[in-house]
């Protein structure tokens, strides 16, 4: 059986993992930052080393295209993921799918294979959504989910404008997003959760992905003296924000979803002043659309009560609203069969994380392959997947790509 070049794959993962350390030595390649530009340049270089045509679209998505005179009229098979990261990130999230995609194509080319259709590997812009919201932005625009000109005008958490930053780092491409309409899309990714590791299963055949709702909540109270203001006279925005966080945990423990308050800002943020303002984000997720909507409704009802009870003013701003996604049963089956053919255990899974694949599923049959994350740790420098599991996942990826691309 053909296998990927494991040394090259692992070397590139570690090389990319070494790019983008911030001043505190943390791996942080936020979308369209100088650190990410360095990562983009490395990936575009590896695409060229693999003999691929490199194209960048207007939202900065990078595509490595393998096509021949014989197959270039056919709709391509697309693979890919992202190389932007969260703050203080791990080295596998997203990168495995992009570097794995280059590796699979390079392996097929070097082995002298032809394919019935072009094979394209994509590195999508701003999957993480940390600097510019929403997340999965590049693949969402590619799938026609947001208008490109509106998105290029997005203002980031640091006050920068996405389109200007893409231009500054030299990745404001020319072709329109969606310029290639794939026949199918496949993404190799780490699980980022504990299931495969705990169960000792090697491959996740991902059949669906949970819904994701992001919003920003602003609570306004009254600044006052921390020492002289009696409790019953306080309008404490900080306390109200904390109550929302506790409410969310109790809510999702009942609904089976998950909730995260990841960003919190207090004003004036002084030790002896009752906070006049709290601005925080709510990330709510559930694989069941009805339950997710019910949780959202319960939250807005709670915020209305809190306004009265705590004498504060509350406003909310919707950031994203992505429904749960079902992947293509036929491709999921191929993942299971490919794992079995290599003597690897596999199991069906739901993706708890948002993925570029969830956006590509809007325009073509799509599925994902997961490999184990040790102790399920991710979005953390301790994120780790064993080399043998990286290689096993990449070989299953190679087999399913070969089948979908009509290798001959
Ligand atoms: O938020 C997510 O689930 C993904 O990592 N962007
Ligand atoms: Mn990811
Ligand atoms: Mn991520």
Could you characterize the architecture of this molecule?
Strands 1, 2, 3, 4, 5, 6, 14, 15 and 16 form a 9-stranded mixed β-sheet that branches. Strands 7, 9, 10, 12 and 13 form a 5-stranded antiparallel β-sheet that branches. This protein folds into 2 domains: 6-210 and 324-405, Zn peptidases (Aminopeptidase); 211-322, Alpha-Beta Plaits (2-Layer Sandwich). Helix 3 (95-110) links the parallel strand 3 (77-82) and strand 4. The chain starts with 5 loop residues before the first helix and ends with a helix. The chain has 408 residues and is an alpha+beta fold. It is elongated, with a radius of gyration of 22 Å. Helices cover 35% and strands 22% of the residues. Helix 1 runs antiparallel to helix 3 (95-110) and helix 3 (95-110) packs across helix 12. The longest helix is centred in the last third of the chain and has 21 residues, at 289-309. The model has no long low-confidence stretch (mean pLDDT 97). The chain is built from 12 helices and 16 strands. The structure holds (2S)-amino(hydroxy)ethanoic acid and manganese (II) ion (MN) (2 copies). (2S)-amino(hydroxy)ethanoic acid binds next to loops.
